[in-house]
Amino acid sequence: MHANSAIDPSVPPASEGCSACESDGGWWLHLRRCTTCGTIGCCDSSPAQHATAHFTETGHPIVRSFEPGESWFWDYESDAYTEGPELAPPVARPVGQGSPAPKGRVPADWRSLLH
Predict the structure, then answer these.
(1) SS3 string of the chain?
(2) Is 98 exposed, middle or buried (0-12, 13-18, 19+ CB in 10 A)?
(3) How far apart are CA 27 and CA 34, in angstroms?
(4) Looking at CB atoms within 10 Å, which of 8, 10, 28, 64 has the fewest?
(5) Which residues are in the UBP-type domain (predicted)?
(6) Which residues, other chains included, contact 115 with Cβ-Cβ below 8 Å and sequence gap of 6+?
C-alpha cells in the first residue's frame, strides 16, 4: 500500500466503464477510478454520479481520472485535488470507447441531462 492507505497502486481497474451504469443500463460522460479497490464509476456530471456514490457507500476517499490523457487524483474527504503514485494499468478507458458512452445507450439529448 501507498503511504496514503486509500491508495493501493497494485489494484487494477475493475472494468473499462462504469460498472453500476453497465448493471442498470445507464450511460456516462467521464470515468473515475477508485484508488482503493479499482471500481470504475461515472463522474459528477454524469446522470447517475456513481463515483461519488461509491465513496459515500464505501468510504474510499480517493479517485483518479480514468480518462485518456488525464492523471489527476481527487480526495472526496478534503474536497480537493491530491497527489498519487502511478497505478496498475490500464490507466484510462479505451480511447475507442469515446465519451459519452457506451455507444447505443447515450440519448440524443444527453447534454441536457448532465449535472
Answers:
(1) CCCCCCCCCCCCCCCCCCHHHHHHCCCECCEEEECCCCCEEECCCCCCCHHHHHHHHHCCCEEEECCCCCCCEEECCCCEEECCCCCCCCCCCCHHHCCCECCCCCCCCHHHHCC
(2) exposed
(3) 18
(4) 10
(5) 1-99
(6) 44, 45, 46, 47, 49
Query: What pLDDT, in 10s, does the model give residues 40-79?
Result: 999 999 999 999 999 999 999 999 999 999 999 999 999 9
pTM of the model: 0.94
Average pLDDT over the chain, rounded to whole?
A: 95
Residue 103 CB-density burial (10 A; 0-12 exposed, 13-18 middle, 19+ buried): exposed
